[in-house]
Amino acid sequence: MKEKIRIASGQGFWGDLIDAPYNQVANGDIDYLVMDYLAEVTMSILQKQKNKNPELGYARDIPELMKRILPICKEKNIKVITNGGGVNPISCAKAVLGVAKSIGINELKIGVLLGDDIREKIDLIIDSGCNLNDMETGEPIQSVKDKLLSANVYFGAFPIVDALDAGADIVITGRTTDTGLTLAPMIHEFDWAKDNFDLMAAGTVAGHILECGAQATGGNFLGDWESIDNFASIGFPIAEAYPNGEVIITKHESLGGKVSIETVSEQLLYEIGNPKMYITPDCIADFTSIQLEEVGKDRVKVFGVKGEPDTPSYKVSCSYSSGYSAVSTLTYSWPQALTKAKAVDKILRQRLENLNLQFDEIRTEFVGYNACHGPLAADIDEDLINEIVVRFAVRSKDYNSIERFGKEIAPLILTGPPSVTGFAGGRPKPSEVVAYWPALLPKNLVQPYIEIMEMKS
Amino acid sequence: MKKKLKDIAHGRSGDKGDAANVGIIAYNEEGYQIIEKYLTAEVVKKHFEGICFGKVERYELPNLKALNFLLHNTLGGGGTVSLKLDAQGKTLAAALLRMEIEV
After folding, report:
1. Dihedral sign (CA A91, A92, A93, A97)
2. What is the three-class DSSP state of B102?
3. Does A363 touch chain B (CB under 8 A)?
4. Which of A222, A288, A361 is the closest to B11 by Cβ?
5. Does A374 touch chain B (CB under 8 A)?
6. Are B101 and B39 in contact (CB under 8 A)?
7. Which of A360, A367, A376 to mutate to test the interface with B (most CBs of B within 10 A)?
8. Of A312, A314, A32, whose CA–CA distance to A163 is shortest?
9. CA–CA separation, A70 vs B102, rounded Å?
10. Residue B73 to chain A, least CA–CA distance (Å)
11. A407: number of Cβ within 10 Å
């Protein structure tokens, strides 16, 4: 058994720093590169791409990225785990095998995790007695069943462990938990028992720290952010894991950023609910048991983590189509920038009302004044306000209302208050609103499975 | 004596559906004693009047010198349904740090 393994985060979401995974494999020693590409809305975007072209539906950055990093991963024996397979992990794996071949790699084993996509099985699931009730409202899924764009189960670490045990160099999954990507290599390397929930929780906590990339190494740090060194070349986090469950969070020395108790604590608190019950398919982690200690420059030890047994359910993430929205902005300059922006809001609302359009919501925000903090924003003497961006956003079930809204913005420049600019890029187009439906599914109703795709010399 | 929360704590916020999570972390033990005592769910609910339209839940993480607040009915529907510029509540931790605490 290895004395320790180093797991590096390469991506916190689809659209994160393109060079981060390359920097992780090129700038120092790591054993695993883990990349999270999937936010809740990402699955519906990928499903739409797959509907248009059955070969798509995965994070399309992956093949290009693999072309850059595979030679280094081969040389250093770095394994790659990613959920960027989206709704089409098989096509993603095929594309990766294709680019590998094109750069002269002739041996590669990819483990593809399948079974998370339950869109075609919703009726069967309902028939077996599970109504996939919305976790927030309790409403059964029946009401949106015909509008579903995607429906995926969050699998945990163990299917990924199976792929690693089978000798995969790369594991490509659909919807898995972000934390499972990091926990899996620890279970695989250290032979952790499935029912050792303290260890499951320790790996899960490390996964939570890694899952948003540089948010653990100084990015978006609300403490003394100006003390963060070299944001331009910020290093993404690395979890140095030990068989006893202790983990040291660090980063490559040559890259920027910072790892301190404060930067790690901020990430630990990100998007959590009850900290005693951080629920994953692998365990329930108790975030109030986490101990942190600075053990060197940019090295924070995470230890003492306690866990409880996993629940009998998987979380399911569904998305469905729920109307249309559009956003547009205009910019007003001094003098009376805010007064003018408020006046144009009244004018636009009057025109929309005169047109008898149907909206579920019309929202106006004054960027530069109170768009972020609303009523908490400090009052400012209007003479000190140099400019205001007024931002209009509308939502409706009626496409035509949203489209017509888009035609009402530009005319405000010549038919409303003065010193206005900033309308560029044409009329705002209606975009589809994708709503999110979280539910629970008994674990026995769905089975993850692995397909191995490989090329041999 | 008045203390600015910004001077004794930092934090991070994000979204959980239509709820926002606001994590507040004290810089030291003394600071944690203060937020643990004064930063109640009621105080936070009042602070976010006009922003948070649901209940506020408070959780304690003394191991991290931190409190976690869940602000329900806050993000205008959440996700892609929300029309808010800050649909994910990313700036709400900073909004809480505006608070002054009478110690």
Report:
1. positive
2. strand
3. yes
4. A222
5. yes
6. yes
7. A376
8. A32
9. 58
10. 11
11. 11
Tally C-beta pairs within 8 A across A and B: 130
Whether residue A395 and residue B16 make contact (CB cut-off 8 A), yes or no, is no
Contact of B44 with B58, CB cutoff 8 Å = yes
- Tens-level pLDDT at each residue, chain A (457 residues): 999 999 999 999 999 999 999 999 999 999 999 999 998 778 888 998 998 999 999 999 999 999 999 999 999 999 999 999 999 999 999 999 999 999 999 999 999 999 999 999 999 999 999 999 999 889 999 999 999 999 999 999 999 999 999 999 999 999 999 999 999 999 999 999 999 999 999 999 999 999 999 999 999 999 999 999 999 999 999 999 999 999 999 999 999 999 999 999 999 999 999 999 999 999 999 999 999 999 999 999 999 999 999 999 999 999 999 999 999 999 999 999 999 999 999 999 999 999 999 999 999 999 999 999 999 998 899 999 999 999 999 999 999 999 999 999 999 999 999 999 987 778 999 999 999 899 999 999 999 999 999 998 7
Domains and CATH numbers, chain A: 5-116+154-311 (no CATH), 318-437 (3.30.70.120)
